[in-house]
Automatic annotation (TrEMBL):
Stretches for region Disordered: 109-145
Stretches with biased composition (Basic and acidic residues): 130-139
Gene Ontology annotations for the cellular component aspect, listed alphabetically: membrane
Phylogenetic lineage: Bacteria, Pseudomonadati, Pseudomonadota, Betaproteobacteria, Neisseriales
Name of this protein: UPF0716 protein FxsA
Keywords carried by this UniProt record: Membrane, Transmembrane, Transmembrane helix
Transmembrane segments: 26-46, 79-103
Length: 145
């Protein structure tokens, strides 16, 4: 628990050091513009996240109430990224951008079978039909010998 407290206390100091280094590298005005732009983007994400959460819940209801853990946590990633973008600092912005990357979660339920069933085929698109073997040379297609 003490380590977590130290990390929480050290994070703003590390962010401040990062901002000072960034200002020394690109200039104070550019750093200020970066902070204002990231805060505006963070507020925009938080404002539009309500709609995303409602659409996700609506989609789950249309699918019969089945919602994977990844689908439930996706809006929380956006929420955390928006808060981190509002928080002034370079490291928090980098973490927020990583959270906003469109990474795919694990395929929960893919290829799994219910208890009592055999294993599923990997390709569910099966075309059923009948066939017959033709050995009569008159019925063969031209070019087949």
């Amino acid at each position: 628990m003490r380590r977590f407290a130290w990390i929480v206390l050290a994070f703003p100091v590390i962010e401040l050091i990062g901002l000072v280094l960034l200002a020394g590298r690109i200039g104070g005005l550019a750093t200020l513009l970066w902070l204002v732009a990231s805060a505006l983007v963070g507020m925009w994400i938080l404002r539009n996240q309500r709609l995303g959460l409602l659409l996700t819940a609506w989609g789950a209801l249309n699918q019969g109430g089945q919602m994977s853990l990844y689908q439930m946590l996706w809006p929380l990633r956006f929420l955390l990224a928006g808060v981190l973008l509002i928080f002034p600092g370079v490291i928090s912005d980098i973490i927020a951008l990583i959270l906003l990357l469109p990474l795919r979660g694990p395929q929960l339920g893919a290829g799994q079978s219910a208890p009592g069933e055999g294993p599923r085929a990997a390709n569910d698109s099966v075309i059923e039909g009948e066939f017959s073997r033709v050995d009569d040379p008159k019925k063969r297609l031209p070019g087949q010998d």
